[in-house]
Amino acid sequence: MSLSHTPGPTHKGGVRAAVGGLALLALIGLRPESLPGQDWTEFRSSRQAHVVAESFVLEIVYGVGHLSVEPAEGDLLYDVRMRYDAEQFKPVRQWSLNEGRGQLRVGLTTLDDDGDWISALASGDFDIDPELSLDLDDLKDFDESAGTLELKLGRRLPVDLKLSAGAVATEIALGGVAVSRLELITAASETELSFDDPNPVRMAELVIRAGAAELTAERLGNARFDRFDLKGGVGDVVLDFTGEWDGNATGTVKMGLGSLELKIPAEIGVWIQKSSVLTSFSAPDLEKVDGGYRSTNWEGAEHKLELDLKTAFGTIAVEIVP
Amino acid sequence: MINRFQKTRNGVYTLSVVAVASTACVLFSPVGHLGTQEAPEADAQEAMVASVSMSGDKAILTLGLADGATRSFRLEQGKVYIDGVERATYEPGGALESAWRELLRSPAVFSAEDLARALRDWSAPADADEAAAEILEGALRSVVDVAPVVQLADPPAALAEVSVEGPNGDVSIAPGRLSFGELGAQLDRLRAALDRLGEDAADAHEALALVVHDSYSIPTDRTVEGNLALLDGELSLDGTVAGDVLVLDGTLHLMPNASIEGDILQVGGDVEQHGTPRIAGELLSIVPLAPRSAPALAPAHEIRVRPVSRIQVMERNRGGFFGSIYRNFERAMDGLGVTLGWLIGLGLAGVGLVSFQRRRLETVADTARNNIARSFAVGLAGEVLFFPVSLILVVAVITWLLIPFYAVAVALALLGGYLAVAHAAGEIFAARRFRSHLLERLRRSNSYYYVLSGLVLLLLPFALGAVLWVFGGPLSFLRGLTLFAACLVTWAAATLGFGAVILSRGGSRTEQARGYPSSVPFATSEREDVA
Question: What is the pTM of this model?
Answer without folding.
Answer: 0.51
